[in-house]
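Look at a sample.

——
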Amino acid sequence: MKTTIKSLAASLALAASFAPGAYAGGAPDMHMHDHHMMPELMRSNVDYALPKVSLMREDGKAVSLINEMNDDGRPVILTFIYTTCTSICPIISQTLSQLQSELGSERDKVHMMSISIDPEQDTPARLRQYAKKYGAGPEWQHYTGSVAASIATQRAFDVYRGDKMNHNPVTLLRAAPGKSWLRIDGFATADDLLREYRKLEEGE
């Protein structure tokens, strides 16, 4: 049975309700500090300089991040994930899966990108399995690479937190190469992202 966003969010809320010291006589949940409840979305427009790094796509091809984001001129929707994450990443990835469905025949007009923040574990093969799990179509690609390339990319988009367990839910949207990015901090829904994507299309 597929896990829904509501059930994931409920689990997240339940986990967040426990204090870090509440594990009497037991081992702490290693993902506890991975749970960040951000009830309100924070939107900001930001200019980011893309790093000159090479990443590895889930199909095993080495690619330039700059070329992947700029060459075809499509709007980009960018997220950062890792495949063993049990809280934030499943929600983000399920949201993008739903967004694909809502875009329908327009889905090939946008480039969705998910970049791993755990490249040592997230091989292209693992990313292929992860992409399949969420029904990623050809417009939604997943990337890994060297640790240095991953960190450089995270720093460039101001999402690097030093430890994968400390990452926050962030989604970034850009209308076209050279344009500013819309940064959304928090758990944006598929409807939120579709609405923001429409605004980008209209040049708002």
Observations:
- The first helix runs from residue 5 to 16.
